[in-house]
C-alpha cells in the first residue's frame, strides 16, 4: 500500500513543473488573470510567454523536481531499500568487493542510550571481516615491489581473520599462503583457512619474545623459503612475511575506512570507538577523522589481559596479568579474539587516541546475545566488545551524540567458542541477562 501511495506521489510531483504548465499553455484562460503565464501577441496571433513568466516556470519546475527526489528517497526508506555505495555496476574480481561497507544504525543501542550508535558492517566483506582491507593492501604492495609473484608464498601469524583474508586474496592472485595460528582460536578459523588452500601451523599462546610465538613461527616460515622476512624477498615466486602488526601498510589501508565513515556520516559524528590488536584500524581511522575534525573523540575499548588501556590512560603498557607469579604457561586471559595485546605495535603508535575503557568477557557475551535478540545482528567477539565500548562512550557523552564503531566480523566463525553454549558454560559465561535493557554494561 505504501509503495502504491509513494509511486502516485512521485507521479503527481513529477508533472508539477512540466505537464501542469503545458496544460495551462494550451488553455491559458483557465488560470486567474494574476497567475496567467501566457500573454496573447496579436503580431504572431498566438500566446507567448514573457521572461518573468519563464523565470517563474523554471523556479516552480525546479521545486517540483526537488519534491520528486525527496519523495523517491522517502519511498526507498519506507521500502527498506536505502541506497548503498555497494550497489553499483560490475566490479573486477574479488578485490572490487572489499570495502565501501554500509554504516548500520544499531536500533536497540541507539534507543536505549539516546545517542545515534552506528556500526561499520565489515562482516559484509567477501572474506567476512575487516581484515580483507589490510590483506588486499599488503598483497598489492608485495606484488608492486616485486617481492611476490604468481606461485609465490605469503605468510602471517594471525588469530584467524587476517589469515583468512590473506588466503582469499592470495588465491585471487595465484599465490600460496601459510598461516601460523594460536591453538586457542576457534576451530572454524583453521577449517576456513584449510578450505581456502592455506597451510595452517597451530601454536600454543606464548610471549612474543618466545621463538614459538605464532608471529615468529610465520617469520621463520618465510625465511625457510629464501626470503629475508620482509617485503622484497626472493625465491620461486618470492616469499613475503605480511607482518600485520608492524607493517605500516596496515594502518594506511584504514585511512580509506576513515574516509568512508566521514562520507557516510557527512562529517557529523562525535566519537569513534574500537578495540585494537595490530592497531591498524584505530590508527588509520583516527588519523583520517582527526585531520578532518580534531574535536572527534577517539576511544579505545580493551579486553581482559591487554595492556593497551594502561598505555592510553597511564602511559605504561603493562597488564595486571603480566605481573611476576601470575603469568600462566598456557594463558587464556580472554575469550575475545582479534583484539587485545601486551605490546605497542608500530601501527598502534600511529593512532591518535583520546581515552580508553575496559570491557569484560561477560559484557561481550551479554552484548552479543542482546544484539542477536533485539537487532538480529549475529556478531563476533571483537565486534561485541566494540559495541560495549560504544555504549560506555554514549553514557559518558550523554544523549544526542553520534558514535561510530566497527562490526569487525560476524558470529559464523565463532560457533565453537564465543557462540557455543557448551563452551560458555565451561568458563562460567552463559548469558544470563534477559531484560531488554543495557544493565549488563558496567
Automatic annotation (TrEMBL):
Q: Which reaction does it catalyse?
A: O-acetyl-L-serine + hydrogen sulfide = L-cysteine + acetate
Q: Which cofactor does it need?
A: pyridoxal 5'-phosphate
Q: Which residues form a coiled coil?
A: none
Q: What would you give as a GO molecular function for this chain, any one?
A: structural constituent of ribosome
PROSITE patterns associated with the record:
CYS_SYNTHASE (PS00901), RIBOSOMAL_L33 (PS00582)
Compartment(s) of residence: Mitochondrion outer membrane
Listed InterPro entries: Cys_Synth/Cystath_Beta-Synth (IPR050214), P-phosphate_BS (IPR001216), Ribosomal_bL33 (IPR001705), Ribosomal_bL33_CS (IPR018264), Ribosomal_bL33_sf (IPR038584), Ribosomal_zn-bd (IPR011332), TrpB-like_PALP (IPR001926), TrpB-like_PALP_sf (IPR036052)
Work out whether the entry's keyword set contains Ribonucleoprotein. yes
Domain Tryptophan synthase beta chain-like PALP span(s) in chain numbering? 95-409
Topology in the lipid bilayer: Single-pass membrane protein
GO biological process per UniProt: cysteine biosynthetic process from serine; translation
Q: What is its EC number?
A: 2.5.1.47
Instruction: Please give the family membership noted in the entry.
Output: Belongs to the cysteine synthase/cystathionine beta-synthase family. Belongs to the bacterial ribosomal protein bL33 family.
Cross-referenced PANTHER family: CYSTATHIONINE BETA-SYNTHASE
NCBIfam families of this UniProt entry? Answer: PRK00595.1, rpmG_bact
What protein name is recorded for this chain? Large ribosomal subunit protein bL33c
What organism does this protein naturally occur in? Elliptochloris bilobata
